[in-house]
Amino acid sequence: MVGLAALLGGCIKAAPGPIPEPGGDRGESPAPPLIVPRGYAVLGSGTPIFFDPRLGQPTARIRQLDARPDPWPSPGLAVRVVGEQDGTIAVSPILRDHDRHCESVLDGGVFDLVWFISPWSLVPVLNRNYEREFDDGTTISMLAGLPLRAADVPGRYAVANEDIRFEMELPEHVVGHNYESVVSMRGTVDSGLRFTPDMQMTFNGGTPIQVLAAPNLERGDVKIGWSSEDEGRHTVEFWSKCVGARVSSDRPPAHSRDTTGDATTGGDAPRRLSELASIGTRTERGSGAFGLSEPPEPPKPPRGRPPFHPVLEAGAPIYVPGIAEAVGVLRDARQFPESSFVSGERQCFTAELSRHFEPPLPLCFDVGEVYISTPESKPFDGGAVRVAPRSLEVPASLGEPEVAASLRRVRNEIRTCYGQALAAGVWSTAELTLELTVDGRGTVTAVEAAVDPRRLALECFEDAARGWTLPAPTDGRPAALTMKVELTIEPFRG
To answer: What is the pLDDT of the chain when averaged over all its residues?
Structure first.
């Protein structure tokens, strides 16, 4: 399978200046944020997306996300940081089996893309886990990746995570624009305590901290671990996904069966908030956890529609409209129940990933990469017939990249032959070798096929190859080449 780095290695080019930079009233441009090109970052609503940083206009923007009122930071989408090139930041969606993040992730599923953004587009975040205990015994703990918003006072930041809101001073070295992976701070313990709307909570000798009360006190994203009282002073410890706090309160929380707040109740024994990260077991996504609406669901096909779905296998290059070069690769075989349209020699789909962008971003593939799953394919309907390149030997007169691209476009014919064998009951993975001879114009004039193990008929493969046209040899003379592919069944994903 073609690697993303190899496929896109030539696409990360210098940006001569079209990506916008913020400027002051005096025409000044501040220094760009300094980031280490690895880990993760957060993109906010409307972030311009450039698939070719040389272009003056973005291909798309991050869709509008639900905003929080001032002064709190608004939600964003977490992405991977994969590189840095001449003033631009290369980022990608987060793929399957992603780590937990404070913000919702821009989930790529099986679509591994790379695009470019201005460094000024990155949302300020906590770049590492940070915990501070104050002189009055209160404590604030935060996990890396938590979005921040600078307050009016230098060095002071507004913090919002789920239903927790507060401002505090942060040292300069913990504020940045990218971070390493994190785990959820929320533990499995539920003390049975609930916030009441009239609780007044503070830390650091009087700095207020808010917990937005849910209409139903039985629900809420913020969980209380324990509460205690000492000479009329109440202490409450609670946590959200990425913030933990041990604070002072003017009154105790209520028990879940008592919403009056008059009774003092206790929970589990106190423990250091830094320990909670190691027991995080819950990752929440959606509007309840992040104040962030999910992309709309793709339209469902009408009833009675026959299940004819286009299929693409792993390694297929991904294109977007207006960009000539591939911008990514498909990581796993995938059926496409979504509607599609044809643009030139490419078939384009609007998948789940597309809806993270405005306008929705079509994902396009060479027509030769696409084949159709039909009811006649029942013998192998549980997955894609995969034709995976293993090796390609070409002479100097034939350019290997050009020949490889041409052979990708004719793999459907190999796939058809393999599918016919599967439908006939010949269940076997195999390695197919084709020795091809082309004339001076690139037309295949001779074919010799071999397969291991010898359970598949070779006539279908040989007949298909005799109709191929490959790039013409540069010297105009006949040339020979050898290709090997692995034939397997790959389960559908994404």
So the answer is: 78
